Amino acid sequence: MNPDPSICRVGNDFYLVTSTFEFYPGLPVYHSKDLVHWKMIGYALDRPGNCPMEGAGSSGGNYAPALRYHDGTFYISCTNYGGKGTQGVFYVTATNPAGPWSDPVWIGNWYVDPSMMFANDSMYWISPDHKGGFSVGTFDPVQKKFIKPLQQVAKGQGGSSPEGPHMYKIGEYYYLMSAEGGTGYEHREVIQRSKSPYGPFEPSPYNPVISNMNHPESPFQAIGHADLLQLQDGSWWLVCLGIRPKGGRFQHLGRETYLAPVKWTDDGWPIGGDNGVMLEEFPAPNLPEHKWEKEPVRDDFNSTTLGLQWNFLRNPYEADWSLTEKPGYLRLNGSKVSLKEKDSPAFIGRRQPDFNMVASTKLSFTPEADNEEAGLVVRGNDANHFSLVVTQREGKRVVLYRKYLQDKVESEEFKEISKDDVILKISATELEYKFWVQPKGKEAILLGTAATKELSNEKIHGFIGVFIGMYASGNGSANTNPADFDWFDYEANPKRIFTVSEK
Predict the structure, then answer these.
(1) 163 is catalytic
(2) What number of H helices and E strands is found in the chain?
(3) Which of 385, 482, 483, 502 could staple 374 via S-S, CB 3.0–4.6 A?
(4) Which protein family is named in the record (predicted)?
């Protein structure tokens, strides 16, 4: 889940930011030297003061950032929908893209997908305008106010939901590039240009710049919401979002970031990919390869701070979690808040970036009542998730597998276990999740399965992708005992196979 990518280059370094919606911290910042290998270096919104998320609904929160660099300062514009205290459109600044980032400068409007362009000694704001078009104004970042108010300068190019605009001054033209067709299978990127940022704009005769809407056979769909970039050698590239549906039109990993080359026509129009189509492979950019150190499979929680891969739901409650109360463990103090509420449960999760993977953890937890539980969760949104938790049934300690779909319990399976620590595992393929329990000294036991499509965007709607993480809750009242997670493993494309035992 890395949608709505926006990119900038500073010397030989590339930086990219993507949307996070109701997850916290917000707006991850990635760094690359070669456009191919990327490393997360921080978050633009990493504290409640600059990331108000309380009360944000699922697929609410922080929408479609734009990243720009000017005169020693990085700028990220964004829109925060639904968080308590939000005022809509804002931007934050930093001199180091890894942070710290400033508190928000609230623009006070409620349009989505704002962007910026620095040109002519001015800061231009570009945004959709709720009227099927795009507006531009000039903004003074010193006085923090508009010098020239937003005014409509162009319309969309005929597709639904014109959005995601970016403007670039290239040569004698101002290019206004935008997405349309919705963020689903009709998604596409289009462009128009003018000799003034205030128009009039003429559309490209080669539109769309890039789209796979007419290529249903492609494994990549919903291509759009792009941002242009020029490399040191003068070549041009774009990043955009796309999806990888499986088993039909079902995608559960969320919208991801794609890279494609851009060629310019003799009459000055950009065309992305292979004549406007996103292929599975392109020749790499003409840059020295720069790989980052691989993320370890295991997080053993021996640090006093969480790794950058971890996220909360909305603004977390400090009392819900700790890395110091029991050193070497992640402790979750399950509160009354559950996963199905528009609140922040004791949940710490990470994106699922691979179809084939195994996530596992070693848990120490003693429930005292049927409502108390702790374990692993595959989360689609508030109303759709799969849980593999230690809980109590008829006075006995059990591991329970629950399907919670369309805001109700669809099924439950459970197995009695001893009071020892237990290993919980979730394995996945393109089409199926499997849920395992491994009691101390025994083989892993398969407790249940679920189709990945049940958490697909097409089934549950919204804009996010699956997260997998650790969770604890008393479902209406606080847990009696804490849940201590000794470690968490995430292994992509695993080679090991679990031995299946009877339930």
Answers:
(1) yes
(2) 1, 36
(3) 483
(4) Belongs to the glycosyl hydrolase 43 family.
